[in-house]
Amino acid sequence: MKKLYIFSLLFLLPVVSLLAxxxxxxxxxxxxxxxxxxxxxxxxxxxxVLDAADSSLVAEGKSGNMTRGGSxxxxxxxxxxxxxxGKFLVRCTAxxxxxxxxxxxxxxxxxxxxxxxxxxxxxxxxxxxxxxxxHLEAAVVKATQIKFYNKGDTLVYNADAFELAEGSMLxxxxxQLPGMEVKRGGEIYVNGRKVDELLxxxxxxxxxxxxxxxxxxxxxxxxxxxxxxxxxxxxxxxxGPDSKQYVLDVGLKRQYQIGWIAxxxxxxxxxxxxxxxxxxxxxxxxxxxxxxxxxNNLSDDRSPGDNGDWSPLQQATGxxxxxTGGFSYDVSQREGKYNLKGDARLAYTxxxxxxxxSRVNFLEGGDTYGRSASTSTPDRFSVNTNHELSFIxxxxxxxxxx
Length: 402
Prior knowledge:
With 402 residues, the protein is mainly β. The chain has 3 helices and 24 strands.
């Protein structure tokens, strides 16, 4: 009987040892699931860990709300029990979402490690795009237009290729042209280079006040805008970099090269503020005559938001009444033998500036106080006029044959 008992004990020892060897270490993987676009937590997602080599199932779970160490951060947690380290694919499936795969690499289990945190890089799942059936009306195909191109050394902009609101003037068109910038006072820059003169069909137009042309020429009349260099007409024999002018030439459409244009504006408001403006232009291919007038007491002619350089720091002070008027003309012979042009401008401004101030100086021996007030009413009257006559002398050569 004793021999039988010893034999049974020896037989059971290998079995217990074998079971102990088969028992493997397991570690919890704590992860989270989020929307791939918004990174918002997604609850109720089925999460499956697959072996990267053969796609066999290793672990599975479902995302849900779980308290993690008193954290108040809202996350969709999932707990997965892993029996071994390795490279895995995490498959996420949920209603309304595309089945999404995430790569997961766990090189090894560290000693005494019972869980692995993987919440900083959530498993992402992509929302399914809703397919919507839409019946389209008949489509009209229109040819696209080239907005600008280079013709030799000339940069040409096609005005018809730009969308403008009804009633827009030339300044709105130029502000839309790529590389163009219009600053206060009518200063124009093309790709960072300042424009020296603004031309209308190749001829100067109120050279001292180009803002008149920008504010009063309707954009629908413009065919194209050209930027190029030309010889300075006041220094025809000059040589060197200073002998060239960079000009912006506004070309009119053929149907608008003969006719009249006029526009007027008037307004009034509280505190006896008023505004009045008139502009008229008669033009042909060989002549041009323009009149303008402006009266206001607004003290400011800026428009916020036009080019980003408007700020309250530039706001005008006081009240200034301004009255301006003038005319411009340009007449040339058909063959170009002579050209007569000029302009005149009258301006009167009346200012009323008042300022008051108070000051306190905090001193150890006692404070001191001060008040100040000033009033000024400057008036200014100016007349500017320019006239120019140019002609070409035609010398003929006579050869005498004896």
